Amino acid sequence: MDWNVKRILAKTNYKIHTDAIKENLIFEELSPQEQRYVYTSEADLLNVALFGKYAWQWRNENPNEKDKNIRDSATIEELIVLTNLENMNALFIQQGLNQIERLKKLREIAIMQLRQLKGLKSVENLKQIGE
Asked: What predicted TM-score, i.e. pTM, was given to this entire model?
């Protein structure tokens, strides 16, 4: 159950985020490899904003977790914030903000929202559902 709750939360705004990338950052001139890089770069932007590190850094720090990724180890609070960050990043992409500007804003939002969610009754209820 815990895994299912986390996966649902992680996927909530995924389409909104990837559509914004596709519509604003992916160009016909890009090779398939370059397009994958753009998507990966945007996913890592969210990782840095939320977790303070790239996915590869987490993998290096957690060599025994080969079947997992940074988001699999996230708390419910972090996953809630991640879905919010996906939505915000999609908006910032559509507004034409560059990646550095977006990272600064997303990091501020992540820190603020994590503080706000700490100990919140509804988040605690979600944790109980997941147990």
From this structure: 0.84
CB 108, CB 97: distance < 8 Å: no
Higher pLDDT, 13 or 5: 13
Q: Look at residue 103 in the predicted model and tell me its pLDDT.
A: 98
Q: Which tokens in the block code for residue 74?
A: 């996230």
Q: Residue type at 114?
A: L
Which of 11-15, 23-27, 31-35, 122-126 is the least confident region? 122-126
Give the domain extent around 33.
2-130
Name the token pair of 20. 């914004």
Number of domains making up the chain: 1
Q: How far apart are CA 68 and CA 10, in angstroms?
A: 14
Rounded to the nearest 10 degrees, the angle between the axes of helix 2-11 and helix 76-94 is: 10
On the 0-12 / 13-18 / 19+ scale of CB atoms within 10 A, 111 is: middle
